[in-house]
Write a structure and sequence with these properties.
The protein has 180 residues and is an alpha/beta fold. Helix content is 47%, strand content 18%. The protein has a 5-stranded mixed sheet with strand order 4-1-5-6-7. Strands 2-3 form a two-stranded antiparallel sheet. Iron/sulfur cluster binds next to helix 3.
Length: 180
């Protein structure tokens, strides 16, 4: 599963709009992400944890992370109780998620989706990666939800942990009342 030409065109159109209007790309990406998250929230909430996967960016690891890497991404060694990756992946495992993957890059996603066939995907990433993933998964009928990094970059990034844990734990009883 790769980004279709229509997904690539949507991203290009948003970038053109940013250039023409002087608005920031990130701001425009966030508007679209918000719409897609709102559309998918109830569907996500109704899907059992065992049919969901969680995708985490490698940049969320501690800078001195010792995790080895294999074909499924980085393998957390749970070396730090404060590490956001550790906290989020432990939560997903405790809830019974089908999988939780720490990705070195987005190129691994199509293979993981093909291998695990999830009904729902929660991904933590920067704006552009989130929108690319949401649009692509939407075309494949997978309920996807993007949680944005508070601070992005190649390393030492951060996420709103409480918010991410709430989305990961979302169930049907909360899906209709939780704010988008
Ligand atoms: S807890 Fe896991 S992801 Fe975090 S620094 Fe340690 S090995 Fe890396």
């Amino acid at each position: 599963m790769s980004a279709s030409s229509s997904v690539v065109e949507t991203l290009a159109r948003i970038k053109r709009e940013a250039e023409e209007t002087g608005r920031s790309e990130k701001e425009l990406f966030r508007v679209h992400i918000h719409k897609l998250n709102s559309k998918n929230r109830n569907a996500l909430a109704a899907i059992p944890f065992s049919k969901r996967i969680l995708l985490l960016p490698q940049c969320l690891r501690n800078p001195d992370c010792p995790a080895p890497q294999n074909e499924e991404g980085y393998i957390c060694q749970q070396c730090s109780p404060d590490c956001q990756v550790n906290i989020l992946s432990q939560k997903a495992h405790t809830l019974g998620y089908k999988g939780c993957y720490i990705l070195p890059g987005g190129s691994m996603i199509p293979r993981l989706i093909a291998a695990t066939k999830p009904q729902a995907v929660i991904g933590i990433s920067c704006e552009e990666e989130a929108l690319l993933g949401l649009l692509t998964l939407d075309k494949h009928g997978i309920a996807a939800y993007g949680v944005l990094l508070l601070r992005d970059g190649c390393m030492n990034t951060a996420v709103d942990l409480d918010y991410a844990l709430t989305i990961i734990s979302l169930t049907k009883s909360e899906g209709t009342t939780f704010p988008p």
